Amino acid sequence: MPLAEHTTLRLGGPAGRFVIAHSEEALVAAVRDADAEASAAGERAPLVLGGGSNVLVSDDGVPGTTILVTTAGRELRDIDGAGAILTVEAGEDWDTVVEASVSSGWSGLECLSGIPGRAGAVPVQNVGAYGVEISELLIDVDLYDRRTATVRTRVPAAELGLGYRTSALKGRDAAVVLRIRLALTPGPLSGPIRYPELARALGVPVGAGAPITDVRAAVLELRRSKGMVLDPADHDTWSAGSFFTNPVLDAATADRVAASAADERMPRWPTDNGMVKLSAAWLISQSGFRRGHPGPGGRVGLSSRHSLALTNRGGGTTEDLLALAREVRDGVRARFGVTLTPEPVLVGCAL
Ligand SMILES: Cc1cc2nc3c(=O)[nH]c(=O)nc-3n(C[C@H](O)[C@H](O)[C@H](O)COP(=O)(O)OP(=O)(O)OC[C@H]3O[C@@H](n4cnc5c(N)ncnc54)[C@H](O)[C@@H]3O)c2cc1C
User: Fold this and answer.
1) Please, are residues 180 and 209 in contact by the beta-carbon 8 Å criterion?
2) If you take atom 12 of ligand 1, which residue's CA is the nearest one?
3) How close are the terminal C-alpha atoms of the chain, in Å?
4) Three-class DSSP category at 351
């Protein structure tokens, strides 16, 4: 089974063994058995896969077992009209969950519309977009702890180490998320819109609310304009979304970057802990990489609509994509002295 068939980049070699887990019992048993076999054989931990939208898998593939999570089920519990708790099984398609909550009048998830993948991976990198992160809505998760081989229920979000595009679950093969619980608010208005581009699209001031159906439509339109909604016919969407995270630097380093940029329009956002977040897309474009910049043989390239998305133009390989990623990373480092970090989880390969 070529893993390229299960990743949005359409890259990745074969899986030694491929298991589809439709139920919690099958998922836990598959991971438990595969973990035990891998550890006895001294091999790398088996890969747990959702929608394959945040992984870059080596051309050599994964020699051991890969487990695809396809568990299904959603339950919404209304708490006397004051709010709701939405419980979602890990294998549910994320955007279907968002669409259903918006269309049934519950607010909270609308800014997270159009993100590919499955619900179980949402806490893994604390998914975020348009001013909202899942950490704001996540109550707790049930998980299978791979280190102790036990199921733990109601693990509070605060124990998951959720940060900017990261968590204690990411890239460590520590646990499998079985289901997530989210706190929703009665609609029809969204919470305050924080992202200026989205507020402009909605025609509201930053900090105001808007009808959740309008917010979802506006987010999807903005995302489509950047090639950030999956479309099999559109190579700009054959990506893992943003390939690099925005660098978060101390203020003195950010000032040094600003001085070398010599451009007062350089985007910079203060974070809660006194650091400064810069725009990876801006640094990339200011380092001479235009949208559409080709990688080896033109088989891969920067998206023609977003300089932060590395894309497979058809016929690319993981090595091609890594070569492009290294070129961009090294170019930004040479220009600004900032080393960009990849956002997807690299499986069997390294930058
Ligand atoms: C076009 C596009 C746009 C995107 N836009 C955004 C965006 O706006 N914001 C954002 O944050 N991300 C974005 N992403 C990245 C990606 O969609 C999210 O990170 C998504 O949550 C990944 O889900 P997945 O099921 O595809 O995970 P996968 O790619 O299958 O897996 C990612 C990692 O999570 C692990 N994993 C998967 N399922 C589980 C589970 N049940 N338990 C434990 N670990 C698990 C995997 O082992 C792997 O390490 C985008 C990607 C694409 C292709």
Assistant:
1) no
2) 127
3) 25
4) coil
How confident is the model at residue 103, as a pLDDT? 96
Among 327, 321, 305, smallest CA distance to 313 is for 321
**pLDDT at residue 325, rounded to an integer:** 98
Q: Are 1 and 15 in contact (CB under 8 A)?
A: yes
| Token representation of residue 193 | 């819109």
Residue 273's pLDDT is what? 85
159 flagged as catalytic: no
Residue showing tokens 């036990």: 150
Q: What distance in angstroms lies between residue 54's CA and the mean position of ligand 1's atoms?
A: 4
User: Which residues of the chain, if any, have pLDDT below 70?
Assistant: none
Pick the closest to residue 8 from 56, 63, 73 (CA basis). Answer: 56
**From the CA of 256, how far away is ligand 1's center (Å)?**
33
Catalytic residue among 101, 242, 287, 307: 242
pLDDT digits (tens, 9 = 90+) for 220-257: 999 999 999 999 999 999 999 999 999 999 999 999 99
Q: How far apart are CA 108 and CA 101, in angstroms?
A: 9
Token couple for 49: 């896969």
Q: Look up 118 and say whether it is catalytic.
A: no
Its pTM stands at 0.95
CA atoms within 13 A on the CB side of 114: 22
pLDDT at 263: 81
CA 114, 318, 342, 46 torsion-angle sign: positive
Task: Give the residues surrounding ligand 1 with Cβ less than 6 Å away.
Answer: 8, 47-55, 69, 90, 115-118, 120-122, 124-125, 127-129, 169, 171, 176-177, 228, 230, 237, 239-241, 345
Closest atom of ligand 1 relative to the 127 alpha carbon: 11
Residue 220 phi, psi dihedral angles, 5° rounding: -65, -40
Q: Which residues pair with 76 in a beta bridge?
A: 86
